[in-house]
């Protein structure tokens, strides 16, 4: 189908940043204009899912446009998708820039 491959590049969405790790990653990515990977977990209750067994194999890489610290203490990020990817295996090193 024409246009399906490029359709991810125009999608923007809002995500609640529940975990501290997710909030920190989004803030660093927004500040330094580093794209992030967004992948759904197989089990939402698992705190630290394994890359190889705890996540779906496909995800979307995106730019974090803005992180909002809301008055009720929660955090939300607006992201713009760039494209999709497939997880091939576990990489080396830290996934969050220092």
What does this structure look like?
It is a single chain. This protein has 98 residues and is α+β, with helices and mostly antiparallel strands. Helix content is 17%, strand content 33%. The chain is built from 2 helices and 4 strands, in the order H-E-H-E-E-E. The chain has a 4-stranded antiparallel sheet with strand order 1-4-3-2. Strand 3 and strand 4 form a beta hairpin. It is globular. The mean pLDDT is 85.
Q: Could you spell the SSE succession in H and E letters?
A: HEHEEE
Structural class: alpha+beta
- Sum up the overall morphology in one term: globular
Mean pLDDT: 85
What share of the residues does DSSP label as strand, in percent? Answer: 25-35%
For the sheet with most strands, the description reads:
4 strands, antiparallel
**Widest sheet: strand ordering:** 1-4-3-2
Helix tally? Answer: 2
- Strand tally is 4
Query: What are the low-pLDDT stretches, counting only 5+ consecutive residues below 50?
Result: none
Give the termini separation: 41 Å
Name the assembly state.
single chain
Relative helix content: 10-25%
Cα-atom Rg, whole angstroms?
A: 14 Å
């Amino acid at each position: 189908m024409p246009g399906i491959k490029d359709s991810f590049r125009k999608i923007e969405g809002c995500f609640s940043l529940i975990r501290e790790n997710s909030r920190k990653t989004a803030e660093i990515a927004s500040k330094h204009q580093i794209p992030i990977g967004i992948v759904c977990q197989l089990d939402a209750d698992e705190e630290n899912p394994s890359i190889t067994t705890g996540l779906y194999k496909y995800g979307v890489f995106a730019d974090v446009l803005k992180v909002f610290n809301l008055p009720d203490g929660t955090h939300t990020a607006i992201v713009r998708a760039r494209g999709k990817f497939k997880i091939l295996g576990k990489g080396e090193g830290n996934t969050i820039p220092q």
